[in-house]
Automatic annotation (TrEMBL):
It comes from Halolamina salina. Residues 8-120 form the HotDog ACOT-type domain. Transmembrane segments: none annotated. Gene3D superfamilies: Hotdog Thioesterase. This is Acyl-CoA thioesterase. Its EC number is 3.1.2.20.
Length: 160
């Protein structure tokens, strides 16, 4: 396949208002709800890139570094930063926004791998990734390096 697609073509942003049904007894986002939003946003980015249905193949390590509180807005951003023959690697970031104060903070991030499927549900080739702008290349390189560092940290924890 000689088809190409850009990182920017995959860029997806979703927002969710944190309501009581997605909170724990402390009024903070349930981890499962956040993971659900991340999976959806990542899949949309993958579908936009591949122009095909995609399914989740894997999700890397996740740390919840800051809570999302009841009434805050969760902003989920995703983009394709790498490809295989039938797969796309997607960086997904989540931040919380307080709409009353205008403040925001990073809450979590992870890397997902999705596999593209044809109409019969068989894995199918995806376009090659191109980054025609400097901003796209910077985002791609940051994601590659962050994923590499995350893997190295995981290996180090396993050796301890």
């Amino acid at each position: 396949m000689t088809e190409t697609a850009t990182l920017a073509e995959s860029y997806t942003e979703m927002t969710e208002l944190l309501l009581p049904n997605d909170t724990n007894n402390l009024g903070r986002a349930l981890g499962g709800a956040v993971l659900h939003w991340m999976d959806i946003c990542g899949a949309i980015a993958g579908m936009r890139f591949a122009n095909k249905q995609v399914v989740t193949a894997s999700m890397d390590h996740v740390d919840f570094i800051s809570p999302i509180d009841l009434g805050e807005v969760a902003v989920v951003q995703a983009y394709v930063f790498n490809t295989g023959r039938t797969s796309v690697d997607v960086k997904v970031d989540v931040r919380a926004e307080d709409p009353r104060e205008g403040e925001e903070r990073k809450t979590t991030a992870s890397f997902f791998t999705f596999v593209a499927l044809d109409d019969d549900g068989t894995p199918t080739e995806v376009p090659s990734l191109t980054c025609p702008t400097e901003d796209e290349e910077v985002l791609r390189e940051e994601a590659v390096q962050e994923r590499k560092q995350q893997f190295e940290d995981l290996v180090a924890r396993m050796e301890d």
